[in-house]
Design a protein that fits this description.
With about 190 residues, the chain is α/β, with parallel strands linked by helices. The protein is about 40% helix and about 15% strand. This is Ribonuclease HII.
Length: about 190
């Protein structure tokens, strides 16, 4: 069972992002504030869950959280400011979109660059330790996976409905055969030498 909060009786928002290692599409982040007494044994790091479980939990999280938000940084922004800064941008956008201002942030990972005065702590593998970070990882992944599956309809041949933009063999074969799309990150090495 993941921990509810770092400190009891404090409004803590968990924040996580997905899509940093992808060759295309936005980087997407979510921020979630869960009630302190909320517990769900199924909530865990989104990568450890099946697609079906993530989709069920997305509805559960949205219905039971005090507030949640999802935000992205575009491919153009990724190419302009680099993927790390674009990840921070997406996280900051998600945090700012929350309907309740958190008193503290639990950030998944080892670095963060805030644009606000909310205190925070970076937690490596936080999506396997804190329920709010895991909930944020589930919302961000479900949202981004759906987006990439929808883009795959207009851009067949890259396998986005399955690989969601990650550098798989089928994705790289698509780039080789059809060239990059407007959704590909030009600053990334799309094909190996």
């Amino acid at each position: 069972m993941l921990l509810p909060n770092l400190v009891p009786n404090r409004l803590e928002a968990g924040c996580d992002e997905v899509g940093r290692g992808c060759l295309c599409g936005p980087v997407t982040a979510a921020a979630v504030i869960l009630p302190e007494d909320y517990a769900n044994e199924w909530i865990n790091d989104s990568k450890k869950l099946t697609k079906g479980n993530r989709e069920k939990l997305t509805e559960e999280i949205k219905a039971n959280s005090l507030t949640w938000a999802i935000a992205s940084a575009t491919v153009e922004e990724i190419d302009e400011i680099n993927i790390l800064n674009a990840s921070f941008l997406a996280m900051n956008r998600a945090i700012e979109a929350l309907k309740i201002k958190p008193e503290f942030l639990l950030i998944d990972g080892n670095r963060f660059n805030p644009i606000h005065d909310i205190p925070y702590e970076c937690i490596i593998k936080g999506d396997g330790k804190y329920a709010s970070i895991a909930a944020a990882s589930i919302l961000a992944k479900t949202y981004r996976d759906d987006l990439m599956a929808n883009l795959a309809v207009d851009f067949p041949g890259y396998g986005w409905e399955k690989n969601v933009g990650y550098p798989t063999k089928s994705h790289r074969l698509g780039i080789k055969e059809f060239g990059p799309t407007p959704h590909h990150r030009q600053s990334f090495k799309l094909l190996p030498e």
